[in-house]
TrEMBL record:
Alphabetical list of SUPFAM superfamilies matching this protein: Formyltransferase (SSF53328)
Family recorded in the similarity comment: Belongs to the GART family.
Site features described as Raises pKa of active site His, chain residue numbers: D144
EC number assigned by the record: 2.1.2.2
Amino-acid positions noted as binding (6R)-10-formyltetrahydrofolate in the UniProt annotation, renumbered to this chain: N101
Cross-referenced InterPro entries: Formyl_transf_N, Formyl_transf_N_sf, GART
Positions annotated to bind N(1)-(5-phospho-beta-D-ribosyl)glycinamide: G11, S12, N13
Active site: H103 (proton donor)
Catalytic activity line of the entry: N(1)-(5-phospho-beta-D-ribosyl)glycinamide + (6R)-10-formyltetrahydrofolate = N(2)-formyl-N(1)-(5-phospho-beta-D-ribosyl)glycinamide + (6S)-5,6,7,8-tetrahydrofolate + H(+)
Protein known as: Phosphoribosylglycinamide formyltransferase
Domain of life according to the entry: Bacteria
């Protein structure tokens, strides 16, 4: 089976997926897509010899080019890994329950438009939360509101810095995301 990853930034989660599926027969990462020509994820993809595609707002929201590309590559599952744009309705309809996202909080807390990256961890820290976590969920037409697939938690100590909170979340993401993606792909019928 074939997976496409959408990412806008560093792509450390994308990298974990690339590593995982390099040594796994269930699926391959066939394409990495980004809206950001500067995204480090592009270099990560290159080092795994995975094709990449850079697109702009017009292409994403006003043409069928991306859907055509995904269909041509026979993509079965779309994985968002730090992708910051809302997925157009049309793409959701083409891939019902086949688009998943990872978010660095225990949704529904600390989710929604504008809640991404460090902003999430800062908000969690400022609120004095005793625990943080990650959520892997299906994607619908609202930011961070699709059905949950998996959540994992970590403890926050009073002395934890922003960096430490971020690190704890990232460790959980890297540990669980590849495994959960594999479970989902196994259940998909061809
Ligand atoms: C992750 O924290 C993920 O939960 C969120 O964006 C971040 C992406 O980090 N959606 P990276 O680019 O995978 O390092």
């Amino acid at each position: 089976k074939h997976i496409a990853i959408f990412a806008s930034g560093s792509g450390s989660n994308a990298q974990k997926l690339m590593e995982h599926f390099k040594r796994n027969n269930e699926a391959e990462i066939s394409l990495v897509l980004t809206n950001n020509p500067e995204a480090f994820v592009l270099q990560r993809a290159d080092s795994f010899e995975i094709p990449t595609h850079i697109f702009d707002k017009h292409e994403f929201y006003e043409t069928d080019e991306i859907i055509d590309l995904l269909k041509n590559l026979d993509i079965d599952l779309i994985v968002l890994a730090g992708f910051l744009w809302l997925i157009p309705e049309k793409l959701i309809n083409e891939y019902p329950n086949k688009i998943i996202n990872i978010h660095p909080s225990l949704l529904p807390a600390y989710g929604g438009k504008g809640m991404y990256g460090d902003k999430v961890h800062k908000a969690v820290m400022l609120a004095g939360e005793k625990e943080g976590g990650i959520t892997i969920h299906y994607v619908n037409n609202k930011f961070d509101e699709g059905e949950h697939i998996y959540q994992a938690k970590y403890r926050i100590e009073e002395t934890d810095t922003l960096e430490m909170i971020k690190f704890k979340g990232q460790q959980l993401e890297h540990l669980h995301f590849p495994r959960i993606v594999e479970n989902i792909i196994k259940k998909l019928k061809k």
